Amino acid sequence: QVLLVESGGGLVQAGDSLTLSCRASGGAFAAYAAGWFRQPPGKERELVAQIGSSGQTNYADSVKGRFTISRDNGKKTVYLQMNNLQPEDTAVYYCNAQSMYWGQGTQVTVSS
């Protein structure tokens, strides 16, 4: 069983930056692919970024060039650096590991 705990969300203004963290406990984290998803108000959950066990990354078109996903296997933590945030980035952000495990989510709200 893998437990994921996100942190780092908050209320920011357009153009600001935030870094989300997702710390894992249990399981062989270094071997897992991990990702960040988000669910905007009234919409479906969508993929934001993924990172493989070897560090390969994949991003949604809407965040390319603004968001960066990274991982520290020693700390069992995945990060999402978000720059130039826009109101359309407002959502609950969820961490995922191995397409099976989910965190509880952290709210990111961007005001215009």
Proportion of beta-strand residues: over 45%
- What's the Cα radius of gyration? 13 Å
Outline the biggest β-sheet. 7 strands, mixed
| Helix-and-strand structural type | mainly beta
Number of strands: 11
Helicity level: under 10%
What is the distance, rounded to the nearest whole angstrom, between the alpha carbons of the first and last residues? 40 Å
Counting DSSP H or I runs of 4 or more residues, the number of helices is: 0
Q: Any idea what the shape is? A: globular
The helix-strand sequence is EEEEEEEEEEE
Averaged pLDDT? 96
Poorly predicted runs of 5 or more residues: none
Per-chain topology:
Layout: E1 3-7, E2 10-13, E3 18-25, E4 34-39, E5 46-51, E6 57-59, E7 67-72, E8 77-82, E9 91-97, E10 101-102, E11 106-111
Parallel strand pairs: 2-11
Antiparallel strand pairs: 1-3, 3-8, 4-5, 4-9, 5-6, 7-8, 9-10, 9-11
Describe the structure.
The protein contains no helices and 11 strands. It is globular and about 40 Å long. With 112 residues, the chain is mainly beta. Strand 7 (67-72) and strand 8 form a beta hairpin.
Task: Write a compact overview of the structure shown.
The protein has 112 residues and is mostly beta strands.
